[in-house]
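cron nightly-structures :: item 1 of 1
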Amino acid sequence: MEQNKNAFREGIRDGFPIALGYFAVAFSLGIAARKAGLNPFQGFLSSILNHASAGEYAEFTVIMANATYFEMAFVILVTNIRYLLMSCALSQKFDTGTFFGHRFLVGFGITDEIFGIGIARKGALNPWYHYGAMAIALPSWAAGTAIGIVAGNVLPASAVSALSVALYGMFVAIIVPASRKDRIVGGVVIVSFFVSFLVSRIALFDGLSESMKISLLTVLIAGIAAAFFPVKEEDGKEEETEYGA
């Protein structure tokens, strides 16, 4: 029980800067939500259930186009499909005794940044760490959307654009330490940047959504890296822990 409390507090600590970045970015989402006709409560509910900026932008665009529910479901599935890969990766870090309910809830709360701080932790993943990060980051994301709707278009576009820079800086802060500790990880990150840039300039891939491009490149690059630089068995051993309580 004490171990779970400590993990929860650590999750809140690591999730605090994520929450700040989320609030800023979600504020601009709120402006888009207002244009789609959503009120603050609807915007809050949308963001507490959909934790991806691309997915929500797509959602609001579909609403403004008066599209069908099927079209909305399909668009959000495509834009958020990368989280399936993240869920698979995190599932490998759980202790074998972790309950299915914990796995389900952690999967529900996966975002790019929460995934990043979770996958970077050493040893078996305690779901209470994710709960701590989710407890502060996700409400901030939803509150930012609701307040953005209230504010409407009062702020100039330049101010809203400046606020969104915080998210990119936060993501860089996640990958840089891991790259400095491991040259292989650093090399994979550099290759990922380079290949992503090339794909963005090739007309053949223009028909794919950004999320689909990210998903395909993640599978390809991670698969090649795993084949050529596998993690040794002894490096993957983890402490036996119990997270069922």
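cron nightly-structures :: done
DSSP finds twelve helices and no strands in the chain.
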